[in-house]
Design a protein that fits this description.
With about 140 residues, the chain is of the alpha/beta class. The protein contains six helices and five strands, in the order E-H-E-H-E-H-E-H-E-H-H. The protein has a five-stranded parallel beta sheet, with helices on both faces. The structure holds D-ribose. The site of D-ribose has 8 residues, from helix 3.
Length: about 140
């Protein structure tokens, strides 16, 4: 199950991703919003909570730029969120950073690319090895603050 959420800027993109990837067998838990103007940190909180509780394995967050969602999501202990707008970064953030949330900007990239990037994010496995050590160092920083 994938948690997905957006603010008012990202509703069309969210629906487009749900439509495209549901056809491929992915299941989504839609954490809002419904298009009514809302504050992106509220939605980031809802999606991150689904991932941290283990109800959902990963999360997708969409706002106008993807930046507000990224900032909010990365405040949660245990969340590693990446702002994705190209396939290389999307692939490598899974391989090397073991990110559990991807963020996208609906005013930055198109719906077709967003669905492609979401699929890359959801299908690429973490490489582990030396990258796990670096994730552990990030966790140490989290625990100190
Ligand atoms: C909403 O207008 C906009 O600020 C929001 O979608 C996002 O881009 C914030 O980072």
């Amino acid at each position: 199950m994938i948690a997905i959420g957006c603010d008012h800027a990202g509703c069309e993109m969210k629906q487009s991703i749900i439509n495209a990837l549901s056809e491929k067998g992915y299941e989504f838990k839609d954490m809002g919003c419904d298009g009514t103007p809302c504050d992106y940190p509220v939605i980031a909180d809802a999606v991150c909570s689904e991932v941290l509780s283990g109800t959902c394995e990963k999360g997708i967050l969409i706002c106008g730029t993807g930046i507000g969602m990224s900032i909010a999501a990365n405040k949660f202990k245990g969340i590693r969120a990446a702002l994705c707008s190209d396939s290389y970064s999307t692939r490598f953030t899974r391989l090397h950073n073991d990110t559990n949330i991807m963020c996208m900007g609906a005013r930055v990239i198109g719906n077709g690319l967003a669905s492609e990037l979401a699929e890359i994010f959801l299908t690429t496995e973490f490489e582990g090895g030396r990258h796990q050590r670096r994730i552990d160092l990030i966790t140490n920083i989290e625990n100190k603050n």
